[in-house]
Design a protein that fits this description.
Radius of gyration: 24 Å
Number of helices: 9
Number of strands: 28
Largest sheet: 7 strands, antiparallel
Shape: globular
Distance between the termini: 68 Å
Helix content: 10-25%
């Protein structure tokens, strides 16, 4: 099968809504990394048409796509989604030929840290007529992001009431979302970026946090937009990427688009101020906006958001799609930063998350754990891996603890042991133990200096009785 290659130079789409005007940054710290986005689609032989859509990252004031190339085993073309200027690759087959369709997009990315210099900002400015006209569509509702109605208006009425200063309203809205929402991924309903869900459930992931922010701030007449991409951790020289991350921006008169990340601030309270008007250089933006229509070949309803491949076969959604995402840090000269080959702690966390997701999929959507002490089989959903407690015990042995939630809301803290000398051979080693139930521990870990080992100790009878 032929391989189609597309080689590109600098990718920069200079549209008004992406770039102008440029907000001010305190620092110009930056990093360079490579990023590979691979897709494989095995559509059933003879079925069609087959349409594959893959987002293409683009430059903005926070990142420069230094270069990128596309290789594919089927013909395809680059296109632009015209509402937000998103770029994407569209591959098409009249009928599937029984061979896997593969696409690989390889990038070199320069990402900049951004932190707003608030001392230089005149927040008393109003929007100029042309300024607001260029971005008026970022005041509108989308399918899951309402900007009017009792649900939104009742909340908005209590956020900085009577205030007209854009910056004050934006900060108060940011604070409201952080204070009112919980970051957790349990049950069904989260992850759709649905303001109604966020208002009623008051929990979810980054899509839910920032849909709520967009609804509330647009309802006050402030343009706001949704951005989505991937985390590229600054403290790791390389890593695989398991999931997306998203954030929002609001438009400040005379300054331009200002980033906020309420979900990251919720998970990192010490960086709450940074994430209002700032980003570390720890991410790669892929696309902007919601309800995206990709044009020819896109027969289904507009995409809620676009970060992973969208595939249609015979006009129906096709979900048997394999995706592999990975990055490597580069020097300023484009040379890979060396590593010692052993897995990083972030990679250990990602392997655990992938293990739980894979195991849950095979077992009806739940992670099943036997609690020997209570003689119970627990059906759980992963809430979060405690990355701050990840530990390398010795070469080839790692300790991980993570919170899970049962259907009745009980929180179980589970301890895992992982063995392996590189990221590809990491495995979960028995036993998986219940450490805490709703914060009440069954045992604790004590370091034995004479043996140089951590030992598991039972809690006292007094602590058990509390």
């Amino acid at each position: 099968m032929p391989v189609f290659r597309h080689l590109m130079g600098i990718c920069a789409v200079a549209t008004t809504c992406l770039f102008a005007p440029a907000a001010q940054s305190k620092e110009a710290t930056e990093r360079t990394f490579s990023f590979v986005y691979k897709v494989e689609v095995n559509a059933p032989l003879g079925q069609g048409p087959v349409d594959i859509f893959v987002p293409i990252a683009q430059s903005d004031r926070h990142q420069t796509i230094v270069d990128y190339s596309i290789e594919s085993t089927i013909p395809g073309t680059e296109k632009i989604e015209h509402v937000h200027g998103n770029r994407f690759w569209h591959g098409h087959l009249d009928t599937a030929d029984g061979e896997p369709a593969r696409v690989a997009i390889s990038y070199t990315v320069l990402r900049r840290k951004f932190e707003m210099d608030w001392d230089s900002v005149d927040s008393s400015r109003s929007y100029a007529d042309q300024e607001i006209a260029d971005i008026a569509h970022y005041l509108e509702a989308s399918r899951r992001v309402p900007v009017s109605g009792d649900l939104v208006e009742n909340i908005v009425a209590d956020i900085a009431p009577g205030e007209t200063d854009v910056l004050t309203i934006a900060k108060a809205t940011y604070d409201y979302v952080i204070d009112e929402m919980e970051y957790k991924k349990i049950g069904k309903g989260w992850g759709n970026g649905d303001t109604s869900w966020a208002c009623s459930a008051k929990y979810g992931n980054c899509t839910d946090f920032h849909s709520l922010f967009n609804s509330l701030i647009r309802a006050r007449g402030i343009p706001s937009r949704f951005e989505i991409g991937f985390l590229v951790h600054e403290d790791l020289s390389r890593g695989s990427v398991g999931g997306y991350h998203c954030w929002a921006e609001f438009y400040l008169p005379g300054e331009g688009w200002i980033p906020i990340d309420a979900a990251a601030a919720k998970n990192q309270p010490d960086k709450r101020d940074l994430y209002f008007g700032g980003h570390p250089a720890d991410r790669m933006m892929m696309t902007i906006g919601r309800d995206l229509d990709l044009g020819e070949g896109h027969a289904l309803k507009p995409l809620n958001y676009f970060v992973f491949p969208h595939v249609e076969v015979g006009g129906e959604l096709y979900e048997e799609v394999k995706t592999h995402l990975a990055y490597k840090s580069l020097t300023a000269d484009g040379v890979e930063v060396p590593d010692n080959g052993e897995p990083t702690l972030e990679e250990v966390a990602q392997v655990i998350e992938a293990y739980v997701a894979r195991d849950s999929k095979l077992k009806g959507g739940y992670f099943l754990v036997y609690d020997e002490q209570e003689d119970l089989s627990l059906r759980l959903h992963l809430d979060k891996v405690h990355r701050q407690r990840l530990s390398k015990i010795k070469d080839g042995l790692y300790f991980v603890c993570a919170d899970f939630m049962a259907l009745d809301g009980t929180v179980y803290d589970l301890d895992f042991w992982m063995r392996g000398t590189n990221v590809d051979d990491l495995i979960v080693s028995d036993p998986i133990e219940v450490h805490k139930i709703d914060g009440k521990r069954r045992y604790y870990w004590s370091f034995n200096k004479s043996s140089n080992l951590w030992e598991q100790k039972p809690v006292s009878a007094k602590e058990k009785s509390l």
